[in-house]
Automatic annotation (TrEMBL):
GO terms for molecular function: oxidoreductase activity. PANTHER family: DEHYDROGENASE/REDUCTASE SDR FAMILY MEMBER 7B, SHORT-CHAIN DEHYDROGENASE-RELATED. InterPro entries: NAD(P)-bd_dom_sf (IPR036291), SDR_fam (IPR002347). Belongs to the short-chain dehydrogenases/reductases (SDR) family. It holds the Pfam family adh_short. GO terms for cellular component: membrane. It comes from Flavobacterium zepuense. This is SDR family oxidoreductase.
Length: 265
């Protein structure tokens, strides 16, 4: 058991930014509740995280399904675990023109990126309010700031989560509970493979992608400092700042050019 006996619940904890965040929490002696779809991946990562001297609880759930999000809440409650930090990290996208993309895949992404985030936050924020302590980190993305041709649904889900995070933070401002939105840019994770985005200009230059460890560190530090949101990476900070003074119609055209398939070059 860890010294401080606190628990962080992290969804999508077996790879990418979620995995890097889990290491940071474990290093600071937070016990972990890690969630992903693959039991085998969870067990492998749990073994690694336990080397930090913390307790690791693994729960395999498919957060594309709202019923699994509700079941996750119940399972944690039945184990008597108090979640001190909730990290809503799990999220996916789908690539293509909206007229061509698969509606079932898009509804799944809305369920994962939005519905599961809302379900988990609703459950744990009630517990946090009852004891007047807790922290929430929502993985947002700078995609939340701009319309996203070629990823119209993904960008819209992230805009939802950013707006939700900022509203919830305001509702909780007279409590000891903080809500932080982490806004990375394109990051070197499995996101692009899962989104079938390998043909996009956005992933043409792999060296331009952010390191997930750097993104996680930015998010972790902002969370611990109680900040409302953090844009990870200097280039992304500049992009968001410029975007704030650029009309959405122009931003949409810029994003369309950035994300269109390479064969259109």
């Amino acid at each position: 058991m860890s010294d401080i006996n606190k628990y962080a619940l992290i969804t999508g904890a077996t790879n990418g930014i979620g995995y890097e965040l889990a290491k940071l929490f474990a290093n600071d002696k937070y016990n972990l509740v890690i969630v992903a779809r693959s039991e085998a991946e969870l067990q492998a990562k749990a073994q690694e995280f336990r080397s930090y001297g913390v307790e690791v609880v693994t729960i395999a759930k498919d957060l594309f399904k709202s019923e699994d999000a509700f079941a996750l809440c119940q399972e944690i409650q039945s184990k008597g675990i108090q979640v001190d930090v909730l990290v809503n990290n799990a999220g996916q996208g789908v690539y293509g023109l909206f007229k061509d993309t698969d509606i079932d895949r898009e509804l799944d992404i809305i369920s994962l990126n939005i519905a599961s985030t809302i379900i988990l936050t609703k459950h744990f924020v009630k517990e946090m309010v009852a004891r007047n302590s807790g922290k929430i980190l929502n993985l947002v993305s700078i995609a939340s700031e701009v319309p996203g041709p070629w990823q119209s649904v993904y960008h819209a889900t992230k805009a939802f989560v950013l707006s939700f995070s900022e509203a919830l933070r305001s509702e909780l401002k007279d409590t000891e509970i903080t809500v932080t939105a982490l806004q990375p840019g394109a990051t070197d994770t499995d996101f692009f493979n899962k989104a079938d985005m390998q043909s996009s200009k956005a992933v043409l230059d792999r060296e331009a992608l952010s390191d997930p460890a750097d993104v996680a560190k930015d998010g972790y530090e902002a969370l611990m400092a109680g900040k409302d949101k953090v844009v990870s990476g200097f280039k992304n900070k500049v992009q968001v700042a410029l975007g704030n003074i650029t009309p959405d119609t122009i931003l949409a055209e810029q994003t369309k050019k950035q994300q269109e398939p390479i064969e259109k070059l």
